[in-house]
Amino acid sequence: MKNYIIIPTYKEAENLKDLLPLLVKYNVIVVDDHSLDGTDRICRKYKNVRLITRKDKRGLSSAVLDGILSIKDRDAKIVVMDADFQHDPAKIPEFLEKLKKFDVVYGHREEAQMSLSRNIISKVASVLAKSMINGIKDIKDPMSGYFAFKKSSIDIEKIKPIGYKIMLDVMASMKEGGKIGEVNFKFGDRKNGKSKLTNRVMLDFILQLMELNNFRFLKFALVGLSGIVVNEFFAFVFHTFLPLYLVFIASAEISILSNFILNHKITFESRVSIRQALPRYNLIALVGLVINVSTALYLSIFVYYLLANLIGIIIAFVFNYILSEKYAWKSYEND
Ligand code: GDD
Ligand code: MN
Question: Which intervals of the chain form a coiled coil (predicted)?
């Protein structure tokens, strides 16, 4: 039996009672964070179930990773699922079947099954994830927690889990040329108990994204702030001898150049030549400026002008960042 199911659990005894009888055909690994709700008693009833109990609660991703690391079988096919029946166990054979052709298979949640707020959070998170992590741009549901992979297709040592999005870690550490497949499923309601997805968990997720992104997003933001200082300084200097419209144009262009140099050296660590990056970045920054100003002008009809300006800055910043990453400093590994 090379098929393994990993189930991370925290206070899921009630659900395990119903779920484990459906999984007797597989090697099941339950990774529990010391729930003290009878999880161990239920697991002991099944010969095919191995329970890993961790004494301190360390989160969903690290639980799944501990499960993966406990599997010695090199040819293992591994399905990761939640205990609460939001992940339909009837789909497991389909995941395993797809692993014959693909290296990682993710469950694509059909959207109608989620509440509106959940849907929005999920959409925002997936746009962020897609813009920050290379190689996942065609994935329809990067936030899914139901997925499967061949152990031999990933570099396990590369995984540094934080937060709860272990699938992103697994995809980010897939070996060269790996193929990603998909299974559709209905994201149902939790059967018993409550969700563990708290604010703290969401914060961890943002940290995880930043880390997978090598903190380029943050560096880009800091460089942007330094650009404001440069811009103001040169506006102050030029003001003594240039007409105002030239003051703004010249100081803006100088700050674009200083941002470019810093981003080239620090944020993108010179991953392409200056000849490619400079004209592209300059263009992006100018378009960004137009976006900033026109958004601010438009929104100022409805809201306080400083708020309008702030929203304009944020939208232009995200635009600048994504295009810098995907176009100006586009490197081979980007696709
Ligand atoms: N060991 C361990 N430690 N298990 C945990 C922990 C933890 O800290 N936190 C949660 N779990 C287990 C739960 O017991 C459950 O089996 C599974 O992880 C999912 O937790 P839920 O609390 O049900 O999460 P959710 O339904 O809000 O989120 C699920 O759906 C999301 C998609 O909307 C998860 O699958 C997410 O990964 C997924 O992104
Ligand atoms: Mn759930």
Answer: none
